[in-house]
């Protein structure tokens, strides 16, 4: 299983059958429209984009927010391009870095969340909240987050009453802990952050999810005995009472190294998925009780290229209602497949079908074929000609040349022998490639396990460094006390002499 070069993506299934696909390639932002697995259009929205997020309102209007390479935080709105746009603020790109842009829309109110850190202190992040309340834009600081340079600082979700809930990781008492906070839209105020993880362990990968019953689900990974385990808590309190959390329970199997948990809801059934070494596992809950199912493995073809994705809106294919703020997907014949939800298509079967049906030669499937040179944003005559030439080259590759019957039988036998040698060579190459691919998978798994150990070592080092800093501070305070005592004692001595 390989990760695609695609970054975070958003897909929306419209009631008309049109599928909207928002994605970023390099620093350019695009929206692709498809219907009946055929591409209808592909348009560039913007360029020099660092990060973006998309939501859709009840009227089918898309709302997009982006942060650009020059530090502009821009809000976009519309159904069809060109969209209306407005620059909300401009950050000093030389001084700040950004992560995890989010946007939530309800009743014409707009909530934008973004984590900002000074490049001089990349471990200290500030969570910013930009908020439109029908008449004016507000810019509030939510909290400070002490996290690693490469950590995802927070995750956020909106509940059925349109309150926003966040879960984030931050260092406290020398260990990474998980904290929860809520934005109450009635009072336009954030609650005081509440720690919900175990003080004794390092914690990471927080994720929060609000279901159709307005229950708040919190899940994260906790480091125990050099292995990450998946922990879960739920709050079922009413929106008018203080949040009360259940006891934390472990959902993963002991000593299995589990990370990156996330939750989705499909037709009133919860599914919690996580990455376990180089595989994916899941548990489910149909709300009939408080118990989750036994963890089960999600079958994934190792040749697939997986990309992160979010579904905006409440429909995904024939499924309704759904809520999928986070998932992993791949693309096949211009159709999306989400892990744990859709059936798995095997690459070899797909390629064999392609050889048998030349009409389906892939031209726009970077997840499947690894073609990062597809020109997504241009539809001029030159590009279409190039694509036609590309299609012709694929057809030539799979076509069979007519035999020259005028040649002597000996020449034909020589040609047949060369074909046999060529087939043998191809088979040998295929076998070598499969062996090499298996080696790469083993290396990837080993590197991931090594990263968990390094994370534990780093956490221990940070703890020891903090202790040294605390001791150093105590020494400084003792020196100051000593000097005070020395000065006071010397003064009393000279007074005595007088």
Any overview of this molecule?
- Helices cover 24% and strands 41% of the residues.
- The longest helix has 89 residues, at 409-497.
- The model is unreliable at 354-410 (pLDDT under 50).
- It folds into 2 domains: 2-360, Methylamine Dehydrogenase, Chain H (7 Propeller); 407-498.
- The protein contains 4 helices and 29 strands.
In short:
With 498 residues, the protein is an alpha+beta fold.
Count all strands and give the number.
Answer: 29
Structural class: alpha+beta
Shape by Cα distribution: globular
CATH topology of the largest domain: Methylamine Dehydrogenase, Chain H
Flag low-confidence runs: 354-410
The whole-angstrom Rg is 28 Å
Q: Tell me about the biggest sheet?
A: 12 strands, mixed
> How many structural units, i.e. domains?
2
Number of distinct helices: 4
CATH architecture of the largest domain: 7 Propeller
The share of residues in extended strands comes to 35-45%
**According to CATH, what is the class of the largest domain?**
Mainly Beta
Provide the helix percentage.
10-25%
Distance between the termini: 87 Å
Mean pLDDT: 79
């Amino acid at each position: 299983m390989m990760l695609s070069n695609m970054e975070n993506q958003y897909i929306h299934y419209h009631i008309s059958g049109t599928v909207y696909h928002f994605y970023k390639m390099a620093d350019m932002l695009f929206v692709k429209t498809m219907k009946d697995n055929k591409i209808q259009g592909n348009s560039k929205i913007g360029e020099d984009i660092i990060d973006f997020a998309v939501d859709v309102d009840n009227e089918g209007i898309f709302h997009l927010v982006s942060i650009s390479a020059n530090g502009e935080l821009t809000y976009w709105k519309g159904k069809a391009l060109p969209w209306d746009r407005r620059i909300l603020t401009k950050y000093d790109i030389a001084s700040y870095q950004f992560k995890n842009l989010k946007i939530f829309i309800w009743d014409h109110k707009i909530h934008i969340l973004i984590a900002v850190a000074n490049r001089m202190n990349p471990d200290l992040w500030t969570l910013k909240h930009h908020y439109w309340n029908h008449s004016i834009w507000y810019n509030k600081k939510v909290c400070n987050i002490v996290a690693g340079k490469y950590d995802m600082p927070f995750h956020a979700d909106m509940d059925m009453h349109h309150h926003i809930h966040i879960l984030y990781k931050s260092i406290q008492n020398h260990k990474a802990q998980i904290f929860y906070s809520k934005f109450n839209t009635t009072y336009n105020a954030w609650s005081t952050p509440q720690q919900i993880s175990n003080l004794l362990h390092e914690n990471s990968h927080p994720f929060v999810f609000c279901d159709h019953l307005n229950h708040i689900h919190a899940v994260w990974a906790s480091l125990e005995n050099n292995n990450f385990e998946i922990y879960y808590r739920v709050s079922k309190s009413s929106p008018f009472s203080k949040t009360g959390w259940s006891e934390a329970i472990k959902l993963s199997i002991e000593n299995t190294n589990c990370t990156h948990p996330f939750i989705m809801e499909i037709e009133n059934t919860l599914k919690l998925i996580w990455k376990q070494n180089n595989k994916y596992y899941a548990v489910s809950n149909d709300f009939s009780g408080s118990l989750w199912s036994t963890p089960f493995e999600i079958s994934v073809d190792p040749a697939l290229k997986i990309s992160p994705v979010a579904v905006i809106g409440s429909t995904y294919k024939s499924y309704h209602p759904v809520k999928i703020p986070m998932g992993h997907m791949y693309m096949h014949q211009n159709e999306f497949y989400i892990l744990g939800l859709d059936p798995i298509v095997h690459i070899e079967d797909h390629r064999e079908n392609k050889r048998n049906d030349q009409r389906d030669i892939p031209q726009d499937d970077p997840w499947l074929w690894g073609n990062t040179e597809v020109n997504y944003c241009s539809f001029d005559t030159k590009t279409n000609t190039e694509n036609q030439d590309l299609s012709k080259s694929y057809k030539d590759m799979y076509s069979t040349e007519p035999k020259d019957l005028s040649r002597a039988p000996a020449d034909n036998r020589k040609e047949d022998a060369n074909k046999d040698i060529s087939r043998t060579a191809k088979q040998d190459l295929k076998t070598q490639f499969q062996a090499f691919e298996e080696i790469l998978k083993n290396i990837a798994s080993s590197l991931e396990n090594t990263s968990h150990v390094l994370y534990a070592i780093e956490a221990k080092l940070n703890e020891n460094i903090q202790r040294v800093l605390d001791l150093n501070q105590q020494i400084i305070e003792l020196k100051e006390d000593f000097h005070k005592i020395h000065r006071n004692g010397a003064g009393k001595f000279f007074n005595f002499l007088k």
